[in-house]
Amino acid sequence: MTELKYGILCEQAIINRETGQISIINILNGIRIPKLPIEVNTTSLVLSWQRNLNAANADDSFDVRISLRGPGEGAKKRAANEEFKVKLLKNNTMAHTITHLKIEFTEAGENTFIVEKKIGDKWELETTVPIHVIVD
């Protein structure tokens, strides 16, 4: 089984292809915007996955979905912003994915990114990553 170790929202992230090390630039826990609604496309979500090679069902690839929930939306999620496949190389225990998000914020307050992994034919919650939206 492969599990998510962390999710970090930032302005930019770079993976060194030779070493696999990741550089995370300007970690975000909030964003100031001039007005609502507004589309922001300078945000990246870094996800770090770890595979247990000893597990009987160690996945080589799996589907991930990222969606956004606004503060007034309760349990309701907006349509997915991103859906993609994560592939781990043989004998590789770690994989980092960087998703460059194009987000439309429609409400101030705590918005939440929802990261789900597809297991069988169902989507299961892996983590949530909050971002506070402040309108100047």
The biggest beta sheet is recorded as: 5 strands, mixed
The chain-level mean pLDDT equals 83
C-alpha termini separation = 44 Å
Helices and strands, in N-to-C order? EEEEEEEEE
Note the beta-strand portion. Answer: over 45%
Helix count, DSSP H or I runs of 4 or more residues? 0
Count of extended strands: 9
Describe this structure in words.
This protein has no helices and 9 strands. With 136 residues, the protein is mostly beta strands. Strands 3-9-8-5-6 form a 5-stranded mixed β-sheet, with no helix packed on it. Strands 2-1-4-7 form a 4-stranded antiparallel β-sheet, with no helix packed on it. A hairpin with a 6-residue loop joins strand 1 and strand 2. The mean pLDDT is 83.
Q: In a nutshell, what does this entry contain?
A:
With 136 residues, the chain is an all-beta fold.
Strand-helix topology:
Blueprint (H helix, E strand, L loop, with lengths): L1 E14 L6 E6 L2 E4 L4 E14 L9 E9 L12 E6 L6 E12 L3 E11 L2 E14 L1
Parallel strand pairs: 3-9
Antiparallel strand pairs: 1-2, 1-4, 4-7, 5-6, 5-8, 8-9
Describe the structure using short key phrases.
136 residues, mainly beta, 5-stranded mixed β-sheet, globular
